[in-house]
Design goal:
The protein has 20 helices and 7 strands. By secondary structure, it is mainly alpha-helical. It folds into 3 domains: 3-126, 3-Layer(aba) Sandwich (Rossmann fold), CATH 3.40.50.620; 135-321, Serine Threonine Protein Phosphatase 5, Tetratricopeptide repeat (Alpha Horseshoe), CATH 1.25.40; 339-508, DNA Cyclobutane Dipyrimidine Photolyase, subunit A, domain 3. Strands 3-2-1-4-5 form a 5-stranded parallel beta sheet, with helices on both faces. Strands 6-7 form a two-stranded antiparallel sheet.
């Protein structure tokens, strides 16, 4: 009896029980499809990264004796749609059983559910065996309407016994976030990012020949992302040995001079499941234990919290709130995304660099995403659909389950406070505090009004003024309105007029 098993492009977990035994009655299938290249306008490096990872994983399965059917984007049998390709192989092998792993995206979950409802053969669904909390556990935790990240973080630390003594943190303190907010010193030189060199001319040509629309740049001779488990483990070791000692210090820092800083850049290999979150955390803890005194606890805790507290938490919110989450628009924003978000051609130095870096590397770290590009979109009142589409497309690690909760929730507060307790926005003061962007910018960070006033300054107050009814009772925002009310009527009017002027010419900022 033949069984057809589907592997999606982000389900490349070599430790899964499926692969521990070679069964000649099982056929694994993986597809490069226009369905997946076209549902968003993706960065070219992202598409190439997925194809490389999928191809390498398929070859590893074959070398271990498994039967694999792999359809490249230009394969003559490729019908470019998941249901049609599955039906093709079910009929080809006269499969009497179909099995797949739980998808991490709502759209694929629904597509497979509908497909399976019409299948005349038995179907079975399995867990991907990747995350630190199963879907069932998530339902139990978030079903209680407890959406606090800190509560979830502590529950996961206890479950996996990470930096725990009994049921309490080994240091007596759960959170060291206040220790991890340093600006990068001007002459500080972080280690160079570890890169993996590949020639991807053939894949770039494939995408062009097939008419797949992409954005961004790629060096065809030096594609640098890790796309295999072995490379992912190299990247993990490099992070722990070279970057972890200063990760926490500078995790929020921004500079136009170094694009990777002390960040691990492990999110892609984790998101396609080549490396598991638990082994990432355990490796970091082991490095901290191996080098007492060389890595302060705040560095380690900041990293562990990103993996256990934030990544897993965002997945929990996604499955608790989808599909309605994708329609939330708390501030009723309607403005389209400025076209320069796709080019980086703006006079604002912080946005020019953050967007330019994203187009060049398919990467920006969390504060660049939250407090530069996301901050501007929130203050300017951009429709969250457009913000989602941009983030989903431009970043190497953007898969909807982790992208939309960060974007629509944390960044844009479109969920009205499910993910964050207040909108994350700022004037130029925060950007200057955490970056070197303001130096040499066309706009002046200290000016709120005038031809060269930094747009973030007036837009910040305009945002709070126009949303006062929804925000002023938030206990974390009271000081903002007290400060606003202490300004003279003339100053408030001039600030709002400046913001309106900038919003009216947003395409030329």
């Amino acid at each position: 009896m033949k069984t057809l098993r589907l592997l999606l492009g982000d389900q490349l977990n070599p430790a899964h029980f499926w692969f521990q035994i070679v069964d000649n009655s099982v056929v694994y299938c993986l597809f490069e499809m226009r369905q997946e290249t076209d549902y968003a306008t993706h960065h070219v490096q992202k598409v190439i990264g997925f194809f490389l990872a999928m191809r390498a994983f398929a070859e590893d399965l074959r070398s271990n004796g498994h039967h694999v059917e792999y359809l490249t984007l230009d394969h003559l049998d490729n019908l470019q749609s998941l249901p049609e390709n599955l039906l093709f192989f079910i009929e080809k092998y006269q499969a009497q059983r179909f099995e797949y792993l739980l998808p991490d995206e709502w759209r694929l979950e629904e597509q497979l559910r509908q497909f399976c409802e019409a299948l005349p053969i038995p179907v079975q669904v399995f867990d991907t065996e990747h995350f630190m909390a199963s879907r069932h556990e998530l339902q139990g935790f978030f079903g209680k309407n407890n959406y606090l990240m800190e509560s979830f973080h502590r529950a996961m630390r206890r479950k996996h016994h990470v930096l725990i003594d009994g049921d309490q943190p080994i240091t007596g303190q759960w959170n060291y976030d206040h220790d991890n907010r340093q600006k990068l010193p001007k002459n500080h030189m972080p280690p160079s990012p570890l890169m993996f060199r590949r020639n991807v001319t053939d894949l770039v040509q494939l995408l062009e020949n097939q008419g797949a629309k992409t954005i961004g740049k790629v060096d065809t001779n030096n594609f640098g992302w890790a796309v295999t488990r072995a490379e992912g483990l190299q990247l993990l070791n490099y992070f722990c040995e070279q970057l972890l000692p200063h990760f926490g210090d500078f995790q929020d820092a921004m500079t136009p001079h170094h694009w990777a800083l002390y960040h691990s850049r492990l999110s892609f290999v984790m998101n396609v499941k080549l490396v598991s979150p638990l082994e990432v955390v355990q490796r970091a803890v082991a490095e901290w234990q191996r080098r007492p005194g060389a890595i302060s606890f705040s560095q380690l805790e900041g990293f562990v919290r990103q993996i256990i507290g934030w990544r897993e938490y965002m997945r929990g919110i996604y499955w608790a709130k989808m599909p309605d989450f994708a329609k939330l628009n708390y501030f009723e924003n309607e403005r389209p995304l400025p076209s320069w978000f796709w080019t980086g051609k703006t006079k604002m130095a912080c946005l020019r660099h953050a967007i330019g870096q994203s187009l060049e590397h398919a990467y920006a770290h969390h504060i660049q995403r939250l407090m530069v590009t996301g901050n501007f979109a929130l203050l300017a009142g951009i429709h969250p659909d457009e913000v989602d589409a941009w983030y989903l497309g431009i970043y190497m690690d953007a898969i909807e389950w982790v992208e939309i909760t960060n974007t629509r929730g944390m960044s844009q507060f479109a969920d009205g406070g499910i993910v964050g307790t207040k909108p994350y926005c700022s004037s130029s003061a925060y950007i200057h505090k955490m970056s070197h962007y303001c130096e040499g910018c066309f706009y002046k960070k200290d000016l709120r009004t005038g031809e060269r006033a930094c747009p973030f300054n007036s837009l910040y107050w305009h945002f709070h003024d126009r949303h006062r009814e929804k925000l002023e009772r938030n206990p974390r925002i009271g000081m903002v309105y007290r400060t606003w009310d202490k300004m003279s009527g003339e100053a408030r009017a001039a600030t709002l007029e400046q913001a309106e002027k900038y919003l009216g010419k947003i395409e030329s900022l």
